[in-house]
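Thread: "does anyone have the structure for this chain?"

Original post by V.I.:
We have the sequence but no experimental structure in hand. Need at least a predicted one for the grant figures.
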Amino acid sequence: MLIGYTKSILKWFAIVVFVPTLLSLSVDAQQLDNQDVDNSFGSTLSNPSLPIRQLTGGPFTIDNAGTIESTNGNTIRIDVDTTLNNTGLIDADVTTNGQTIQFFNNSGNNSLTNSGTIRIESTGAFSPAIKVQASTVSSITNTATGTIQSSGATTVAEGIRVDDVGSSVNLITNQEASRRRGQVELAAFLSSGTPPALTRSITRDLLQLRVALG
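Reply from O.Q.:
Generated one for you, tokens below.
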């Protein structure tokens, strides 16, 4: 009777120890495609590359108050209408050219508001925290508590990069810059085919931000 009781205890104990191990494995292998995302405070969404991909469908909303991270690649790719609100951390760690958030071939209705931290650590040549490529974005807002940051790139480290024909950001607002100089680095790389009106618009936004940065 005692032997049977002991075996039951051992079997129960083995299950209790093993199940948390399975749960811990799933934390670093998460990828969400084509859906609304609400990542709450204290939660981590992590994947080696692109834990979030908005490729078809939409419109979608991404609300992040926790941590969304890639450990060896880009973090969020947005190809369709998406509203992104960040009060937590969105982070990318790459060893080549890359970006934390990329709007790609996206002519939809997009906006981004950051009150937390969007950053990239890279050893590549060009690695912006936010890249707008062949896409339209109505507004990018960095609030008084926000940080948009790129570090480590060997050639240019940009907070925001706007490039390729057809790219535009209607309004860039950096409310944080007047208080802590240099938290947002902004660069626009324009191809030779960029329309003059777009060049003037982006140049204006660059000038306004540089004035704010002092």
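V.I.: this helps a lot. Residues 1-27, 178-183, 187-196, 207-214 have pLDDT under 50 and may be disordered.
O.Q.: and The longest strand covers residues 136-142.
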